[in-house]
Design brief:
5 helices; single chain; mainly alpha; about 100 residues
Length: about 100
Amino acid sequence: MEILVLRHEVTVLHRQVHRPRLSWADRAVLSVLARGLPAVLRAHQLVTPGTLLRRHQHLIARHWTYPHRKIGRPATDPAVVALIQQLARKKPSLGL
């Protein structure tokens, strides 16, 4: 398991010259592989237990965040408004 983690870290580092930027796929692979390592070895990896916990909290927060919706009644279609105004002009006795 340790060799798999190290190999994946090396491939990530080979792709980059500056600070390593992990993709979601890299993070997922390293997270899964890091679970199989002893705690002593996990502390020295690119993905530390604190990082895993933060990512998990972020995923849970994204899952339970509801989309922003407009509050109140939806706007009436302009075609319907025009039709109502046209009918009101033709029959003013309706009181519209």
